[in-house]
Amino acid sequence: MFFSFRNFKILPAILLSLSLICCSGRNSTSLKQTSGSDSSKSLTYEERQGRQLYKKYCAVCHGEEGKGDGFNAFNLDPKPRNFTDSIYMSALSDERIVETISQGGRGVNRSMLMPTWGGRLKREEIKYVVSYIRRFSYSE
Questions:
Q1: Please, which of 64, 101, 128, 133 could form a disulfide with 50 given CB 3.0 to 4.6 Å?
Q2: Residue 131: which of 99, 97, 84, 108 has the closest Cα?
Q3: What is the CA radius of gyration of the chain?
Q4: What is the mean pLDDT of the segment spanning 121-127?
Q5: In terms of C-beta density within 10 A (0-12 exposed, 13-18 middle, 19 or more buried), how is residue 9 classed?
Q6: Better pLDDT: 51 or 16
Q7: Stated pTM of the model
Q8: In angstroms, rounded to a whole number, what is the distance separating the alpha carbons of residues 83 and 89?
């Protein structure tokens, strides 16, 4: 029989070991999340608002880190813009990025696959997204 009296004595030790392994994994994850949230404390109000909007509307194509590698990016041709390209991003004015987000790719003679967000987002919210997008090219 699998559960003999002798095996039952070992079972609490096994369970304790498993719980320690599981808990230590969660703690290391929470430490990573905590350190990640420390960097979010350095965000301005506009950047924090932009981050929320970016994650909701933009990250699916442009990726969580702005590298153009979001969940839906593999379906798109041309690929979404990589916001970590500091040379390209420094050549764009904030107004040009606002215009692109508002009018979509077609509105600025770019990919028609990028939707227009001007009907969904207020101009102020779009400026928040721009301020957050700018952080991607500064961190590289």
A1: 128
A2: 97
A3: 23
A4: 98
A5: exposed
A6: 51
A7: 0.70
A8: 7
